[in-house]
Specification:
Helix content: 40-55%
Pfam families: Adenine_glyco
Strand content: under 5%
Protein name: DNA-3-methyladenine glycosylase I
Shape: globular
Order of helices and strands: HHHHHHHHEHHE
Oligomer: single chain
Number of domains: 1
Strand order of the largest sheet: 1-2
Structural class: mainly alpha
InterPro entries: Adenine_glyco, DNA-3mA_glycosylase, DNA_glycosylase
Largest sheet: 2 strands, parallel
Radius of gyration: 16 Å
CATH architecture: Orthogonal Bundle
Organism: Undibacterium flavidum
Length: 183
């Protein structure tokens, strides 16, 4: 007998199942992964998460293993190179957003000690467990989105930030019948 998962977890894609079972909704405090997921959630805008997840390793290679110091130095030649990379989503605005986000992230590290400190203070270090389904934004995602935009981050609208909060475990939104749901 197999365990029941959230309906969005495509059982035909092992990457998706692994993501659902071991990452989505699991509290993350790793700076590198927090930065990576922020950019990947932004890259997802207008697309399915599965599309981005399937390209995740390509993104890691193309974006110097998400080294913000390197990404902040990307120039037009690097953007043009990335636009030719079929392994990532070739959208100039999204590529430029990753560069802007790297610069904003480096400043956030100075101002707030990094994404881990910045984000988790909003929930006092404890994930929010929702008891209703199909939430796409909240007052908290609105607040974080607005603040990140002021700090120079791009592709961080409230819907993207809420998905990000789910991805990094600030919020647990597993379906009521999902074996991974927290009570």
């Amino acid at each position: 007998m197999s365990l029941q998962r959230c309906g969005w977890a495509n059982p035909a894609n092992p990457l998706y199942l692994e993501y659902h079972d071991y990452e989505w909704g699991v509290p993350c405090h790793d700076e590198l992964r927090l930065f990576e997921m922020l950019n990947l959630e932004g890259a997802q805008a207008g697309l399915s998460w599965e599309t981005v997840l399937n390209k995740r390793e390509n993104y890691r290679q193309a974006f110097d293993a998400w080294d913000a110091k390197k990404i902040a130095l990307y120039d037009e030649a690097k953007i043009d190179e990335l636009m030719q990379n079929a392994g990532i989503i070739r959208n100039r605005l999204k590529i430029q957003a990753a560069i802007s986000n790297a610069k904003a992230y480096l400043q956030l590290c100075v101002d707030a000690g990094g994404l881990d400190n910045y984000l988790w203070q909003h929930v006092q270090g404890t994930p929010i467990v929702n008891h209703r389904e199909r939430i796409v934004t909240t007052d908290l995602s609105d607040q974080i989105s607005k603040d990140l935009k002021k700090r120079g981050f791009k592709f961080v609208g409230s819907t993207i930030i809420y998905a990000y909060m789910q991805a990094i475990g600030m919020v647990s939104d597993h379906a009521h019948d999902c074996a991974w749901r927290q009570s």
